[in-house]
């Protein structure tokens, strides 16, 4: 009888992805990647992605089943978006009921979502690339919570209602919160269910 070989336990991480980094570990040589923040174990993968211009909470795991589970069960993802202009109630209502956007040259109707204006500017650290200031017109912040995740969806949705996104930060995935985690921080956790 062969001795049983215990599989190594899967590992899970939270990272506050900064602006200007790709949500991957290999790829274009001149681009900044997640592996620059930590010596991650072999087989690590991002659950979902944040584009290079977006910031915030990213979940990482070595467990493919966990990754699929979180992506497939329509887990809520909440974003704070700084918009060009002062968003009005009509535009918020359109976001809430779904808007038509383009995904890889195909028209797509987004699902209904939760969207509301924030009465405060979130206390995020300044970004490495400056966002224009109020001399160029006012900005507003909104919270948008989705259960789907199309390519650059939040940015396309806010542009579709006339308020382009200037800064986008993911603050929650399911029950896991970004909280006050500083940009570039990596935290190993026991599980990703929050």
Question: What this model shows, in words?
Answer:
Belongs to the pseudouridine synthase RsuA family. It is an enzyme of class 5 (isomerase). InterPro entries: PsdUridine_s_RsuA/RluB/E/F_cat, PsdUridine_synth_cat_dom_sf, PsdUridine_synth_RsuA/RluA, PsdUridine_synth_RsuA/RluB/E/F, PsdUridine_synth_RsuA/RluB_CS, RsuA_PseudoU_synthase, TruA/RsuA/RluB/E/F_N. The protein is an alpha+beta fold and 194 residues long. The chain has 2 domains: 12-72 and 176-189, Pseudouridine synthase I, catalytic domain, N-terminal subdomain (Alpha-Beta Plaits), CATH 3.30.70; 77-173, Alpha-L RNA-binding motif (Alpha-Beta Plaits). It contains 3 helices and 13 strands, in the order βββββαβαββββαβββ. It has helices spanning 64-72, 89-97, 153-160; strands at residues 12-17, 21-22, 32-33, 45-47, 55-61, 77-84, 100-103, 106-109, 114-117, 139-146, 165-173, 176-177, 186-189. Strands 1, 4, 5, 6, 9, 10, 11, 12 and 13 form a 9-stranded mixed sheet that branches. The chain has a two-stranded parallel ribbon with strand order 2-3. A two-stranded antiparallel sheet has the order 7-8. A hairpin with a 7-residue loop joins strand 4 and strand 5 (55-61). The protein is globular and about 55 Å long. It starts with 11 loop residues before the first strand and ends in a 5-residue tail after the last strand. The model has no long low-confidence stretch (mean pLDDT 89).
């Amino acid at each position: 009888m062969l001795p049983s070989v215990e599989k190594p336990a899967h590992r899970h991480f939270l990272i506050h992805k900064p602006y200007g980094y790709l949500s991957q570990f290999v790829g274009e040589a001149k681009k900044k990647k997640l592996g620059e923040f930590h010596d991650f174990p072999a087989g690590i993968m991002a659950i979902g992605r944040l584009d290079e211009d977006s910031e915030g909470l990213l979940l990482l795991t070595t467990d493919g089943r966990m990754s699929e589970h979180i992506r497939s069960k329509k887990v809520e993802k909440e974003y704070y978006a700084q918009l060009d202009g002062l968003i009005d109630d009509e535009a918020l209502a359109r976001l809430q009921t779904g808007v038509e956007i383009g995904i890889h040259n195909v028209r797509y109707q987004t699902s209904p979502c939760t969207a509301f204006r924030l009465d405060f500017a979130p206390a995020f650290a300044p970004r490495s690339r400056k966002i224009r200031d109020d001399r160029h017109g006012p900005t507003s912040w909104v919270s948008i919570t989705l259960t789907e995740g199309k390519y650059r969806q939040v940015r396309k949705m806010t542009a579709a209602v006339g308020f382009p996104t200037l800064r986008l930060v993911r603050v929650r995935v399911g029950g896991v919160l970004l909280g006050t985690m500083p940009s570039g921080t990596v935290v190993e956790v026991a599980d990703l269910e929050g």
